[in-house]
């Protein structure tokens, strides 16, 4: 069986990025010979998943793939730089070698200074002993002391110069390593290759397609909303991260919300026994209720700590990049533009004082992008520039979209609540009356003109049992709410001139019979 000596390059031509991995496609033009032969293609990422490798061969003559497998080779990097390494790497290696040499020199100088110190001590002891015995060789003693002091001073100066150079080398080496980390990536020591065994009926060209999954790649949606008067431009981008070990140059990129790692086995069925029991006389005489807050939410992935998953509304979505893109394997975030829509938007100032005293500018428009808008962060841009970052929920094509463009500092809202409780002596019926007062003030800049409307929202409890009734006291409200929806949200459209003030009063009653407990 003939085997080609050198590997055939297999560049990445198309990528489908999933929520936590990517499907890579490679297209290679081959020149086959008649018979059975073994081909070696690559290198490819060592993170390729072996069981997902699929090879498809198309040719004018009859040809087929007999076997396809991924083999990996380990080539550890040597300690010495090569001629192909960049100048920064060679400079870092030279600085490390110089630092090692200076450290050895410093050790020798410190050892020499220690010996000279001992020699000076021995010489002074000899002078003391000679002077005590009556010797007067002062010339020799002075010459020896001068020689030792000169050598100690010379070696001390050389040691100080060495230490100063070591400090400079440490700073330069740190900056060089930081620049090297930002400018390049370490070459992969573990590489993969694809070994193919093909059979061809005759000599001729053929087109090979390889597909496989690879780890360390993911994407998330991101948006940029630009508001210019009544016109809103929403740009849809995909933020792609990949550290697969090989770059993706000029590839056809597709973004999918499929979760290939999710379990596909159905849950096991277990018995669920239901039993009936008679209520006790005490339970028949009373109805236990409680006040709870209900949050209305749509279907989607459960919130998790860290990077959230992609909310696709329960249906797999696939988005395509309109042009080829390049994504290097550096592990950093790369924004890929997907689509852009420009539409007319309506804007209003809204406030829910129970949640926040801030008055927020809310912009509403329809999703005319032609595809679903997945949940993700939105960069908000107005006429004055970048205004902050918000969140866009999942929106189907053609559905209305609502974005909050930050608070308006000209308004201040105060909320006060009062509650009174009354129980009738004859019927034992309890009535709870709650009064909510909202004080809205507008502090406009000097010279401001024109009235502005603010939508105030306040909630009213909704009863789920007939024993508890909720009634809006329209005679005591000032003014009466403009609208009250089925979820108990009351709304007022308050119009304020520059420097104006307004007070809104909401009064409602909760009435329960005597057998109700827990209210």
Average predicted confidence as pLDDT: 85
Estimated radius of gyration: 40 Å
Number of helices: 3
Number of domains: 4
Low-pLDDT residue spans: 297-305
Could you give the order of the helices and strands?
A: EEEEEHHEEEEEHEEEEEEEEEEEEEEEEE
Helix content bin: 10-25%
Topology:
Elements: E1 12-17, E2 22-32, E3 35-44, E4 54-59, E5 63-74, H1 87-133, H2 138-183, E6 190-200, E7 204-214, E8 217-228, E9 231-242, E10 248-256, H3 281-285, E11 287-288, E12 318-320, E13 325-327, E14 334-344, E15 346-351, E16 360-366, E17 376-382, E18 385-392, E19 400-407, E20 411-423, E21 430-442, E22 452-459, E23 468-472, E24 483-484, E25 489-496, E26 501-512, E27 516-517
Parallel strand pairs: 1-10, 8-17, 11-27, 15-22
Antiparallel strand pairs: 1-2, 2-7, 3-6, 4-7, 5-6, 8-9, 9-14, 10-12, 10-13, 15-16, 16-19, 17-18, 20-21, 21-26, 22-25, 23-26, 24-25
Helix pairs in contact: 1-2
């Amino acid at each position: 069986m003939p085997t080609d000596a050198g590997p055939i390059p297999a560049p990445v031509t198309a990528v489908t990025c999933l929520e936590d991995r990517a499907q890579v496609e490679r297209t290679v033009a081959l020149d086959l010979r008649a018979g059975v032969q073994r081909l070696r293609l690559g290198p490819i990422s060592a993170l390729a998943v072996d069981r997902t490798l699929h090879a498809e061969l198309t040719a004018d003559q009859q040809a087929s793939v007999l076997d396809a497998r991924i083999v990996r080779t380990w080539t550890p990097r040597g300690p010495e730089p090569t001629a192909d390494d960049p100048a920064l790497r060679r400079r870092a290696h030279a600085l490390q070698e110089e630092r090692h040499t200076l450290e050895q020199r410093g050790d020798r100088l410190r050892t020499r200074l220690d010996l000279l110190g001992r020699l000076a001590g021995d010489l002074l002891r000899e002078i003391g002993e000679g002077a005590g015995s009556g010797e007067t060789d002062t010339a020799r003693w002075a010459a020896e002391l001068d020689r030792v002091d000169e050598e100690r001073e010379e070696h001390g100066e050389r040691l100080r110069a060495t230490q100063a150079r070591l400090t400079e080398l440490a700073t330069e080496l740190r900056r060089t390593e930081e620049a090297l980390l930002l400018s390049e990536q370490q070459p992969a020591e573990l590489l993969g290759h694809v070994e193919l065994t093909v059979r061809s009926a005759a000599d001729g060209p053929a087109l090979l397609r390889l597909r496989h999954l690879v780890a360390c790649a993911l994407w998330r949606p991101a948006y940029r909303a630009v508001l210019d008067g009544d016109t809103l431009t929403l740009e849809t981008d995909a933020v792609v991260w990949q550290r697969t070990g090989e770059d993706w140059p000029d590839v056809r990129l597709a973004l999918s919300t499929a979760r290939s790692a999710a379990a596909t086995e159905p849950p096991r069925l277990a018995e669920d026994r239901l039993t009936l029991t008679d209520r006790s006389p005490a339970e028949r005489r009373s109805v236990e209720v409680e006040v709870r807050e209900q949050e209305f939410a749509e279907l989607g992935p459960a919130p998790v700590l860290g990077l959230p998953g992609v909310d696709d509304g329960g249906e797999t979505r696939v988005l395509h990049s309109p042009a080829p893109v390049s994504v290097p394997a550096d592990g950093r975030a790369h924004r890929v533009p997907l689509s852009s829509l420009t539409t007319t938007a309506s804007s209003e100032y809204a406030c829910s004082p129970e949640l926040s005293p801030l008055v927020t500018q809310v912009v509403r428009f329809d999703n005319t992008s032609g595809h679903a808008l997945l949940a993700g962060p939105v960069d908000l841009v107005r006429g004055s520039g970048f205004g902050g970052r918000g969140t866009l929920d999942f929106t189907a094509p053609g559905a209305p979209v609502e974005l909050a463009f930050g608070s308006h500092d000209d308004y201040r809202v105060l909320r006060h609540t009062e509650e009174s409780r009354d129980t009738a002596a004859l019927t034992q019926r309890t009535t709870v009356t709650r009064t909510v007062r909202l004080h809205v003030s507008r502090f406009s800049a000097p010279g401001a003109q024109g009235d502005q409307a603010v939508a105030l929202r306040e909630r009213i409890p909704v009863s789920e049992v007939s024993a508890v009734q909720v009634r809006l006291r329209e005679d005591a409200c000032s003014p009466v709410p403009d609208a009250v929806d089925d979820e108990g949200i009351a709304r007022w459209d308050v119009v304020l001139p520059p420097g104006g003030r307004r007070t809104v009063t909401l009064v409602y009653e909760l009435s329960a019979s005597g057998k109700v407990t827990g209210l």
